[in-house]
Amino acid sequence: MFITLIVLMLDVFHFGWSLLSEEDMYRDADEIEKEKELLIHERGSSEPRLSVAPEMDIMDYCKKEWRGNTQKATCMKKGYEEVSQKFTSIRRVRGDNYCALRATLFQAMSQPAELPSWLQDPELTLVRCRCSTLGFRTLKLPEKLISKYSWIKQWKLGLKFEGKSENLVDKIKESLTLLRKKWAGLAELRTEARQIACDELFTNEDDEYCLYEAVKFLMLNRAIELYDDKEKGKEVPFFSVLLFARDTSSDPGQLLRNHLNQVEMFLLAYAVCHTIQVYRLSKYGTEEFLTIYPTDPPRDWPVVTLIAEDDRHYNIPVRVCEETSL
User: Where is this site: Linear diubiquitin binding (predicted)?
Assistant: First the structure.
């Protein structure tokens, strides 16, 4: 039974970015063609690129996207019907290897809440001072980690930075600084203004992908902390035991080389201190239909909710249904 539990958790654990999943292999032609459609205007358009589309009725979206009668389409329809009992609308997220991270970060940053305490951690930033570009002084976390773990220099920046002569430390510092600055700016706005500003932020590709590099670095930092605690015999979340039980990620160095560009949902949740609950439509009718990352989150963590059609397609449900009573 214990082995069965581990297999089940590994299946849930790897539910994130993948270049090719079993579900991808068995999609029909319409679904493959749908993936080619972007949530953005063509590059020649004067309109901004949209990483997160405007909201629409959730069942209208379902009817538009899942018209067939295949087994998968039927499962998706039933899943959306179930989700529509909780949420009335949906915002479609551009599907690629950053989709889960994009959906999580967008929702977390758009929520009406104060700047997260972990972004105010003195370990992350030095004293505030005037800066001609970003408004904050340099960050000390990147230098601290890279000086201690030289293998971090193997870090590969995302595709958006390929061909550019980027200094790794400087780019990570810039990305972390930008994350803090943008989140702090959003935290000062009221709900409607905050949503508008967040929408605008996620139309700026350069800023958007800098934010992803920042979160990836925070995920790596969290992985290092968990690994060190495990090696010292301290109690750690069970997912971190599984994380370092794989042949391809027996330590943080291997995790960096082999898996950092594949989102680990548990690790993402711990990095941004948010509970991530995911409606996994392909698991409709099973206990895995609604999956929580982590399984036993701290009560004070904010919650973000996602809808997953498969490993590369995460959308955001919005507008919670109002409860009525007789």
Answer: 288
Q: Are strands 87-91 and 303-310 parallel, antiparallel or unpaired?
A: unpaired
Structure tokens at 258: 């082999």
How does pLDDT run across 54-66, given as a tens digit for each residue?
999 999 999 999 9
The 10s digit of each residue's pLDDT in 1-29 is: 444 444 444 444 444 433 333 333 333 44
Q: Is 176 helix (H, G, I), strand (E, B) or coil?
A: helix
Question: Can 62 be counted among the known catalytic residues?
Answer: no
Of the candidates 24, 96, 199, 229, the residue annotated as catalytic is 96
Please indicate whether residue 14 is annotated as part of the active site. Answer: no
Catalytic, out of 99, 198, 210, 273: 99
Q: Radius of gyration (Cα) for the chain, nearest Å?
A: 20
Do residues 304 and 111 lie in contact, with contact meaning Cβ atoms separated by under 8 Å?
A: yes
pTM: 0.81
Residue 143 CA to residue 206 CA, distance in Å, equals 23
- Look at residue 236 and give its three-state secondary structure: coil
Look up 28 and say whether it is catalytic. Answer: no
Instruction: Write the CB contacts of 48 (distance below 8 Å, at least 6 apart in sequence).
Output: 41, 200, 203
